[in-house]
Amino acid sequence: MVQWFEKARKLWVEAGSSRNETLIKLAEDFFDALMVVHESCKEGTCEVTEALLSHIGKLASDGQINIMIQKEAARKLNAILAKIPMELKKKKKILSSQEGSCMMNNVASRILRGGDYDLQVSLMEALCRMTSPAQRNELADSWFTMTFVSSAFKKLKDSEFETDCRKFLNMVNGMQGDGRSVYSYPCLQAFLDKHELLMPEDGNLEAFWIDFNLGSQCISFYFCVTDKDAQDGQWNTLCIADDEVRSYTVEEESGRKTLHLVLTEPVNIDSLEGSRVSIKFSSSLDILRATENVYGQAKNRVRLL
Question: Would the pTM of this model clear 0.85, i.e. be above it?
Answer without folding.
Answer: yes
